[in-house]
TrEMBL record:
Domain Lipid/polyisoprenoid-binding YceI-like as annotated: residue spans: 41-223
Alphabetic keyword roster: Signal
Highest rank taxon of the organism: Bacteria
Organism: Kaistella montana
UniProt keyword Signal present: yes
PANTHER family according to UniProt: PROTEIN YCEI
Lipid metabolism found in the keyword field: no
Residues making up the signal peptide according to the UniProt record: 1-19
Protein name (Swiss-Prot/TrEMBL): YceI family protein
Pfam (any one): YceI
Length: 224
């Protein structure tokens, strides 16, 4: 009976450690030269644009999700995206209350999580209030490339700066341009420790409370 219980527990732990991926895994590199602005500048509409984030406990359990507001500009030469710079205000970070059940979180609410994420344990918003993304390269998505982003047609690379660290990330994206409006959408996953966000993921991996992986869903709308 004891042996059976151990086997059952092992199977359960294996199952919960493999969360279904709904995003592309971003590849990373060192900081790269920012792409030159070519063509017309489009202004990002902060009310129509969104950056959704999702974090997980160990094994993909108890996802927490929310949004941050973003602003910035995109540059387009005709229908071709050539460059862009986006800024997200950490102080606009909001956790969706639907992702936090106080009854299962020792009485903690989504507002409590907001405060913790803005603290020095994570983003340290008082010292580093902005997350920045600057495009370094845009290429056509290679033929046959599978992506979790529906309609993905480009590969976008850019310098992502969180706190005082910059890492270049590359991911598939859908870029659509029509009637004076440009939209960029993507769903990709990063490893937060690449930016030194190590809270809850330090020491022996078996003891980590919070997954290193963070899913990001990007929807940027910009107009002339």
């Amino acid at each position: 009976m004891k042996k059976l219980s151990i086997l059952a527990l092992s199977a359960f732990l294996f199952a919960v450690s493999c969360k279904e991926s709904k995003t592309d895994n971003a590849s990373t590199a060192t900081e790269q030269a920012v792409a030159e602005q070519q063509g017309e500048a489009y202004t990002v509409n902060a009310d129509s644009s969104s950056v959704k984030w999702t974090g997980y406990h160990k094994g993909g359990l108890n996802p927490r999700f929310g949004t941050m507001k973003t602003s910035g500009t995109l540059s387009l030469d005709g229908d071709n995206l050539t460059s862009g710079s986006l800024s997200s205000d950490v102080n606009t970070l909001v956790t969706d209350p639907a992702s936090v059940d106080p009854a299962q979180s020792e009485g903690k609410t989504s507002a409590d999580l907001d405060g913790h994420l803005k603290s020095a344990d994570f983003f340290d918003a008082a010292k580093y209030p902005t997350v920045k993304f600057e495009i370094t390269k845009i290429e056509d998505l290679a033929a046959g490339t599978e992506s979790k982003t529906e309609g993905a047609n480009k590969t976008v690379s850019g310098n992502l700066t969180i706190k005082d660290k910059t890492v270049n990330v590359t991911f598939p994206a859908k870029v659509a341009v029509a009637n004076g409006k440009a939209e960029v959408t993507s769903k990709f996953t990063i490893n937060r420790q690449d930016w030194g966000l190590a809270y809850g993921a330090e020491g022996d991996p078996k003891d980590w409370m919070i997954s290193q992986e963070v899913d990001l869903e990007l929807h940027v709308v910009a107009t002339k």
